[in-house]
Amino acid sequence: MSRTLVVVSAGLSSPSSTRLLGDRLAQATAREIDAAVTVVELRDLAGDIANNLVTGFPSPKLGDAIDAVTRADGLIVVTPIFNASYSGLFKSFFDVIEAGSLQGKPVLIAATAGTARHSLALEFALRPLFAYLRADVVPTAVFAASADWGASDRPDGDLTARIDRAAGELAAVMAGRPAAAPETDADEFVPFEAQLARLGITS
């Protein structure tokens, strides 16, 4: 059965290196496991996220994004690094997701920034966040600085190799779990008489 893989991208520009990294990670994962990929662009939901933080209620568009994330068989989450941590937009999105919704969820964490000086943010900011959310974070995190793009000739800094390793780990975790049940439009309607019959009660 095909799995569902959701990419959460917190890139602010269009196009962005954050979205590019998310796409490459998704493609690499889909090569390892049959998965339908959905991308959630947080820049398109910024106003909805802010309103949800204030009102406590998601818009239909934000609600669909939250449902996609919480129902996914696996997640790839990618954020730009600002001031040595994940972006406020990225954190705000996960703040509006109901507590416990990501428990046990296979997650691959990734980030982008201008220089490699920000690479440790994956370990001291993103990994603790998803550990707190009780997600199952794969061992390899992927960081891409501006200099990494097109640097495949450097064995120690090969972005493609890191992407493939992390994607393989995510695919392996997803493959070891049953696929999520497909979403239904509505609960099954059972007439009252049929419910009584199931209980052995006659009217």
UniProtKB/TrEMBL annotation:
<dbReference type="GO" id="GO:0052873">
    <property type="term" value="F:FMN reductase (NADPH) activity"/>
</dbReference>
<dbReference type="InterPro" id="IPR005025">
    <property type="entry name" value="FMN_Rdtase-like_dom"/>
</dbReference>
<dbReference type="InterPro" id="IPR051814">
    <property type="entry name" value="NAD(P)H-dep_FMN_reductase"/>
</dbReference>
<dbReference type="InterPro" id="IPR023932">
    <property type="entry name" value="CE1759_FMN_reduct"/>
</dbReference>
<keyword id="KW-0288">FMN</keyword>
<protein>
    <submittedName>
        <fullName>FMN reductase</fullName>
        <ecNumber>1.5.1.38</ecNumber>
    </submittedName>
</protein>
<dbReference type="InterPro" id="IPR029039">
    <property type="entry name" value="Flavoprotein-like_sf"/>
</dbReference>
<dbReference type="Pfam" id="PF03358">
    <property type="entry name" value="FMN_red"/>
</dbReference>
<keyword id="KW-0560">Oxidoreductase</keyword>
<keyword id="KW-0285">Flavoprotein</keyword>
<feature type="domain" description="NADPH-dependent FMN reductase-like">
    <location>
        <begin position="5"/>
        <end position="149"/>
    </location>
</feature>
